[in-house]
Amino acid sequence: MRQWLLERFPIDYQKFIEINEKIFIKEPIPYHMKSWFFAMGATPLILFAFQVVTGILLTFYYVPSPDLAYESIRHITEDVRFGFLIRGIHRWGSNLMIVALFLHIVRVVFTRAYRAPRELNWIIGVLLLLTTLTFAFTGYSLLYNQLSYWATTVGTNLFKSLPLIGSTILNFLRGGEHVNPNTLTRFFMVHVGLLPPIMTLLVFLHILVLRLHGVAEIEGREGEGYYSFYPSHFYKIIIATLFLITTMSALSIIFPPGLGEPATPEETPLHIKPEWYFYPVYRWLKLVPLNVGIYTIIAGLIVLTFWPFIDELLRGKLPRIKLNYVFGILFVTITIVLTVWEAMVF
Amino acid sequence: MAEENVPKTSRRIFLANLVMGGGLVIGVGAFLRDIWQFLYPDIGRRQFTRFMVAKVKDIPIGKAQKLEIGRVPIHVVHLADGFKVYSGICTHLGCLVKWEENKNRFYCPCHKGIFAPDGKVLSGPPPRPLDEYKVTIENELVFIEVEKRKGRWS
Amino acid sequence: MNAQNDTLTAQKILIGIFSFLLVVTLIIVAGVEMKKTRVEKPEIEITGVTKQCISCHEKKGMAVGTTNQWKESVHAEQGIGCIECHEAQEGDWDAFKCPESDILVARHPTPKDCAECHEQQVQEFADSKHAHQFWLIKNTDRSVFEFPIVTRHGCEQCHQIGNLWPDNSVGECDACHAKHTFSKAIARQPETCGECHIGPDHPHIEIYLESKHGNIFKAKGKKWDMNYSTKNNQKIPIDAPVCTTCHMDGNETQPMTHNVSARLAWDSQAAWSYRTVWKQEKLGNWQTKRARLEAICKSCHAPDFVETYMLTADLNNLQYNELRRMFVYWTKKLTENGTIKRLEADGKFYSDPVLNGWDEEPEILMYHAWHHEGRRFRHGAEMMAADYTQWHGIWELQMDMNEMLTWAAEHGDKEAKEWVESTHPSKWVPFSLYDIPGNAWGINSMSNKLPFVYNNYPDYWDRISANVKTAFEKGLLSEKQWQLWMKRYENKEYYLGTKFNGDSVYAYYKALDDVDTKAFQEQVVGLKLPGEPFWQAKKKVYGNGAYSNGKK
User: Which C residues 12-41 touch A at CB under 8 Å?
Assistant: First the structure.
């Protein structure tokens, strides 16, 4: 049987086994990753895998048209068997993915795992974060209920304030000057067609760079030694996977995915809010004049992207301060304060 | 010592593998089952509802009336022994039959199929009588049993 | 090596445990999935003439609301369209030609049209007092007082439910089954009944909402699916009754009926409370009707509670008659001796001293004592609204009597003057009494030790039992009720609670009350404010001290 297959698919089986052994089975994992605290970097990847599976399942029923978008989601949630489960996992998966990314970033900052020579992987990571947020934003707009419709309108409007290219981007995103049926089809295409390969590529690069360097050791605890990926770490990932799917299923029962009111483009609801992960940005934009807000956010993104270099640069001048701690604490505090602030006001 | 330990340890490993493997098979299986149910259309539960097609007094014995339910043409025939309701689609190749009152028959123009008022094939190629609806009469109204269609998704 | 094996084993078992948890969660998910209620809005097929009507109406934007309502109805689901009800023959009283087609349309379908399919319901309705034209038959001409234009949107709107149509059918189905959904759920809403059964003359919706039944409805009713059927002796599916549950819906033993009079044992809306004889050859006597109602009550309540409750309500109805007797006696007497006069024109009277009079104080009081407070008193007692029995009921009735007698005394009536001048507490009971030892709620070991009539008339219960016995012998109470009454009478020390000793607990609370009394005495009773009032009588005598206006 194997012989028959190998004749028709002529690879060097022995070599294949070797490569597999080298790349996966024997991947050296530093000892500190025995602790669960350090071992959760794969969580966003696991969640992404679930998003892909449930996302594909949802496209079996979802209809990206203003007339049917909301109704088809109602159909999925209320009529289709286990529709609420699949949609619930997709929805909770997106939320948990953002939480997981946030935690992963915080862990990386506090352990300074981005330090040379791994700066590029940090930048890839930032791109992954932005891709995830774009995923979330476009996915939310597909709901086509009142809140998501107006979140899309307001969210896309922000690009208008960018200098020079603002309205071009806006028109491009919306497929017209105003939110229209093509906005929905665009967002759908971006969500299911464009972003998944980009995400996959970035994830691949992220892991590739990680593997080329090996997992970063903890500063000051170098030389702790390694153990192989299989079986111990592999089992950890399976446990994490099972835990996540169980949790998301349970959450789908306890907090089933809602539907809201169908979108009515003629009437803006009284209280509009984006999804909670955009609260910091939303609160910030409400606090300061729009232009200031947008430029500071861009500046913040630049700092975030190039943080490993900035850290290195400043470290030379301020050798006695643990800059990554300052940065990490600032990052966490600002995010949490703005989120909680926004959550408390109506 | 070592010899004693080996079977004990291997039994433990075997049990652990069993717990893990069995658990995974059942867990993943259960999840895949839900996915299958999600994907496979829910056609199990058919429900019927009655639908009024005519008033008894409107159709004298020996007469028929045609109407359309959705896009399906149907014929209500008042026979001496009660009402019959037929689908107007010929059982041969799906053309629409006509009621010919003067000849007291249904006629399919496509291949000259002829059906009697009780639905039976009189001549021509149709392989079986006209499809019939279940008829109930209540309060002098003629009802047929039709499948309850649930919203636009079915 | 061994340690590592142990960790691996632990991890494998952890995987097993998590798989197990996943399966458990998925089983719960499957449970939720099975219980999930799917909105099954059936696709409706619009066929034939109806299709023509609706497309044209929608195009013209004319009464589209009605067609949209129809689309929600069970009629729409079953292919019963516009023309099935709006069918007309040439010469029909309400026939008109649709201006856009040649279809002859009936402008107003009547119960006769509904009866084509819902014959039983229409017949039951026609046998009920909803269909009764009493407001035209019985009354003197009210339009002298409430002139016709007001009547259009006053009397006529509610009494449309018993409309007499040109085709001789009686009633208006959509008074409750709001057109064009004709929804059972809307018809069952207490507020539907409350469209008319509201206000000072018969505040039934208020009585209902005040009762425990109504309270539970308010708390939980939003979650109830009111679209259920009780046509085939199904169980009552809701946790507390709405109006229709007791008066119309069926249960395991009772058939559903559209005859709201089929379960009423009294005519207690009338000026006198009397045992109903409404259509008794068909519906049975009052006892049969009461048995129907009790069969519904007993779906939830113990028989003993139901029977005691209803007997007490019945005795209140009988007691009302004794009060009513007073008002009739006085308006009659005052009319006969010329103190008050009837409305009259060309030898025809337009007011009635025992039913309604519009301009003289005693007549108005008599009318209110029947039509307003008299009904509130009785219906509150029948439907668990204590406040209506008490404050909107007996309190107002006694005040009416007081005012009437005071008025008569002022107008020179000696008998009335004697009553007004009497200072004996028994003046408030110038009539015979009914009573029952205790109530349906429980035993109170103190409350029955206090009443004046209990303590000052040793023959109190002899008088009462004689009255109740007479009511029974006259057929106003059933044999079973009489026995229930006697059971309580023979054990009255038990039911009145007088055989129990609650003195020490009572004394404890009495002491607390003394503290309260002392508190208000100290805080406010003796309080004299320094700032003078802005108007004072020239000379005022108050209590023992005399003081004059201004400075001494």
Answer: 12, 14-15, 18-19, 21-22, 25-26, 28-29, 32-33, 36, 38-39
H runs (alpha helix) in chain A: 2-8, 13-20, 43-59, 69-74, 83-111, 119-142, 146-157, 166-174, 181-189, 195-213, 234-254, 279-287, 290-305, 307-317, 323-344
The residue of chain B nearest to residue C113, with distances taken between CA atoms, is B139
- The dihedrals phi and psi of C356, each to the nearest 5 degrees, come to -155, 140
C79 and B53: CB-CB below 8 Å?
yes
Q: How many CB atoms lie within 10 A of CB C192?
A: 21
The phi-psi region of residue C262 (left if phi > 0; otherwise alpha if psi is between -120 and 50; otherwise beta) is: alpha
ipTM score: 0.83
- Those of residues 91-150 in C touching chain B at CB distance below 8 A are 116-119
- B151 Rama class: left (phi>0) / alpha (psi -120 to 50) / beta: left
Q: pLDDT digit string (tens) for C350-373?
A: 888 888 888 899 999 999 999 999
The tokens 């508190």 sit on which residue? Answer: C519
- pTM for the model: 0.66
Which residues in chain B have their CB less than 8 angstroms from residue C9's CB? Answer: 12-13, 16
Q: Is the pLDDT of residue C551 over 50?
A: no
Residues of A in contact with C26 (CB under 8 A): 249
Asked if A83 lies within 8 A of B37 by C-beta distance, the reply is: no
Instruction: Say whether B150 and C17 touch across the interface (CB within 8 A).
Output: no
Select from B17, B141, B146 the Cβ nearest to the Cβ of C12: B17
Which residues neighbour C432 within 8 Å (Cβ) at sequence distance 6 or greater?
A: C322, C463, C467
For residue C226, count CB atoms less than 10 angstroms from its CB and return exposed for 0-12, middle for 13-18, buried for 19 or more: middle
Q: Determine, for residues C18 and B23 on separate chains, whether the beta-carbon distance falls below 8 Å.
A: yes
Residue B117 and residue B95: Cα distance in Å, rounded?
18
Please answer whether residues B122 and B105 qualify as being in contact, where contact means their C-beta atoms are separated by less than 8 angstroms. yes
> Which is more confident, B137 or C110?
C110
pLDDT in tens, A118-174: 999 999 999 999 999 999 999 999 999 988 898 888 888 888 877 788 889 899 988
Q: How many CB pairs under 8 A join B and C?
A: 96
C73-to-A16, C39, C44, C186, C254 alpha-carbon distances in Å? 68, 15, 10, 12, 27
Residue C316 distance to chain B (closest CA, Å): 45
The answer to whether the beta carbons of residues A209 and A120 sit under 8 Å apart is yes
Residue A202: pLDDT above 90?
yes
C5 contacts in chain B (CB < 8 Å): 9, 13
- CA C462/CA C465 separation, integer angstroms: 5
Give the confidence band of A35 by pLDDT, cuts at 50, 70, 90: confident
- C266-291 b/e (C-beta count within 10 Å ≥ 16 → b): bbbbbbebebbebbeeebeebeebbe
Task: Give φ, ψ of C126 to 5 degrees.
Answer: -65, -25
Which among B148, B137, A181, A248 is positioned nearest to C29, based on CA atoms?
A: A248
Q: Which residue of A has its CA nearest to C26?
A: A249
B124 CA to chain C: closest CA distance, Å?
Answer: 31
Contacts of B17 in chain A (CB under 8 A): none
Q: Average pLDDT of chain A?
A: 89
The residue in chain A having the minimum alpha-carbon distance to the alpha carbon of residue C36 is A78
Question: What six digits make up the tokens of B148?
Answer: 């309850």
Out of B13, B67, B149, whose CB is closest to C48? B67
**Cβ C453 vs Cβ C460: under 8 Å:** yes
CA gap A68, A144 in Å, rounded: 9
